[in-house]
Amino acid sequence: MKPLLSKTTKPFIIYVLIILVISIPVYYFVVDAIWKGELDDHNITIAEKTAYEFNSLKLSDAELEKSINLWSKIQPGTNIEKVPFNYLKRDSFFTIDKQKIFAAKPEIERYRCMKKVVYINKKPFLFTIETNIEESQETVGAIALITIFFFILILVGLLFLNKKLSTSIWLPFRNTLDQLKTFNLNKQTKIEFGKTDITEFEELNQSLSKLIEHNISAFKTQKEFTENASHELQTPLAILKNKLDILLQNENLTEKQYQIAEEMHRALTRSSRINKNLLLLAKIDNSQFDKTEVFQFDELLLQSLGILQEHFELKNIAVSKNILPDIKVCGNRSLTEVLINNLILNAIRHTPANGSISVKLENSSFEIANSGTEKLDHGLLFKRFSKLSADSSGSGLGLAIINEICKFHQWTISYKFENNQHTFSVTF
């Protein structure tokens, strides 16, 4: 990705470069045309001045002829010859290329020519003059070099000024971006953007403020609803569960009635577990837990493994342990216990019978791996109520709770599937 400044500067530079390339031939034709026009005016002046000087001498015809012959010999590129009346109705201007024979090294050069009829002693003479215009190419070349020099100068100055000005011009945008990067919707804190005199940035800040305020309000309403609903559901769920327990103990129930009551009891137990998990997620999102306690992670891990030993035995799962002693972490003890239990239960749920589970604890990481046959979907891994297996006993919130607990502690959780092993790693 490229910064906005480079995306705007590059087209400008290319545009200026194209204009520069086009301008060089334009310079050539314009300067050449101006040069030819000036030479034509100069040649007319020479012709008229020459005629005036000859007329002012008041020479006889013989003396005039000798003087004209002498003039034509000593003036290279100039010729005066007698012509009849009405020989040339108007002045003629043209350009020729010919070899410069009087130079040390003969070479082909361009000449601007003029044929004009002048009157000397009241007789018509054809005045022909050739003036070298090769210098126009050198002039155009010099203009091109100067133009390129100033283009480079403008380019360097433009890049320098853009770099300097962008620091101050884009400062309000950078400040807004920095505040957005640190914004956390869970904290429900409104961002106060700084004032700026740039209209676009001010409109951006106002729009962002309204959007954030609306999102905070919606998020707060959603969290309050989740928490209140979970709290209010606890009591009726507990009452229903208690009534079902009493009903199941009734000896007068038929087999069919008992099965129906048992199914209701399982569904109610799952609903109660989902309710508790949703309430836990709401409390984590609202930062209602303390995370400054220092405790022994290895003790919690060994305690959970002991409590869940029965689950391992039911599926005949072999458990290998590599747990370093005296591993202390700073966080919330109860949430960490939930994280450990959920990871172990998730491993048990996805381990086939007679499979294996390995638990590893080091100074800065906790890892649990279990045997399996198919990789879990990364896209659904930590989503709430996502089903990663056909097992319907889970609430669909276990991995989501694990992810939220890691975020709360600023830990990192990762998943990989290698050599038919599911591996979840938590880095402290």
From TrEMBL:
Protein name: histidine kinase
Stored PROSITE patterns: HIS_KIN
EC number: 2.7.13.3
Domain of life: Bacteria
InterPro entries, alphabetized: HATPase_C_sf, HATPase_dom, His_kinase_dom, HisK_dim/P_dom, HisK_dim/P_sf, TCS_sensor_his_kinase
Reaction catalyzed: ATP + protein L-histidine = ADP + protein N-phospho-L-histidine
Domain Histidine kinase, residue spans: 228-428
UniProt keyword annotation of Cell inner membrane present: no
Xref: CDD domains: HATPase, HisKA
Alphabetical keyword list: Kinase, Membrane, Phosphoprotein, Transferase, Transmembrane, Transmembrane helix
Record carries keyword Glycoprotein: no
UniProt cross-references to SMART domains, sorted A to Z: HATPase_c (SM00387), HisKA (SM00388)
MF GO annotations: phosphorelay sensor kinase activity
Membrane spanning residue stretches: 12-30, 140-161
GO cellular component, one term: plasma membrane
